[in-house]
């Protein structure tokens, strides 16, 4: 009786793990897990679709070597408090338009050549209590950024027009 209970529990855990992995792969947010050496451990479907690189192409490779637009010194400074203090770090598209230079995949609805991104860096605390990995979550902010830029341009034009009228 005990072995069938264990088998049932194990099966339930495997089923839960499977749907969680499916969720990570299909969510419309980039998920990248990096270790302390900036080697990629997880690369989800969003990242695959926008980079054209399969998880097998990037796993255990250094992110700054695969993406030269990401400065290793900048990333080191950004991730230091995440690893050491176990705090989140954030980047908005207004501070830095993108971390990954992905093409804008909505050229009809947006004039931006690249995907504007917000990025959240979260510490992943291991079972031993250490932070050996960091999760990057990359959000496509292209539509919001384009709308804000259009609004600002419109405001500038209205201000210029009202100054010329007076």
Task: Describe the structure in your own words.
It is a single chain. The chain has six helices and five strands. By secondary structure, it is an alpha+beta fold. The protein has a single domain, classed as 2-Layer Sandwich (Beta-Lactamase), CATH 3.30.450.20. Strands 2-1-5-4-3 form a five-stranded antiparallel beta sheet. It is elongated, with a radius of gyration of 21 Å. The model has no long low-confidence stretch (mean pLDDT 88). This is PAS domain-containing protein. Residues 18-84 form the PAS domain. It comes from Agaribacter flavus.
Summarize this structure as a short list of keywords or feature phrases.
166 residues; 6 helices; five-stranded antiparallel sheet; 47% helix; 5 strands; Beta-Lactamase; alpha+beta
Low-confidence stretches: none
| CATH homolog superfamily | PAS domain
Task: Tell the overall outline.
Answer: elongated
Q: What proportion of the residues form beta strands (DSSP E)? A: 15-25%
Largest sheet: 5 strands, antiparallel
- Tell me the distance between the termini: 89 Å
Which structural category fits the helices and strands?
A: alpha+beta
Tally of individual domains = 1
Q: For the CA atoms, what is the radius of gyration?
A: 21 Å
CATH class: Alpha Beta
Q: Output the number of helix runs.
A: 6
Could you state the order of secondary-structure elements as H and E?
HEEHHHHEEEH
């Amino acid at each position: 009786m005990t072995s069938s209970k264990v088998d049932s529990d194990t099966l339930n855990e495997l089923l839960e793990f499977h749907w969680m992995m499916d969720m990570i792969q299909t969510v419309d947010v980039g998920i990248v897990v990096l270790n302390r050496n900036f080697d990629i451990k997880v690369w989800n479907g969003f990242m695959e679709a926008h980079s054209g690189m399969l998880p097998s192409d990037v796993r255990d490779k250094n992110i700054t070597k695969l993406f030269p637009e990401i400065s290793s010194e900048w990333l080191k400074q950004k991730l230091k408090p995440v690893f050491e203090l176990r705090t989140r770090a954030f980047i908005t598209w207004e501070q830095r338009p993108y971390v990954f230079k992905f093409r804008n995949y909505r050229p009809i609805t947006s004039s931006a050549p690249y995907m504007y991104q917000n990025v959240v860096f979260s510490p992943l605390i291991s079972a031993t209590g250490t932070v050996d990995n960091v999760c990057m979550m990359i959000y496509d902010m292209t539509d919001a950024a384009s709308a804000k830029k259009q609004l600002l341009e419109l405001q500038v034009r209205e201000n210029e027009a009202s100054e010329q009228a007076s």
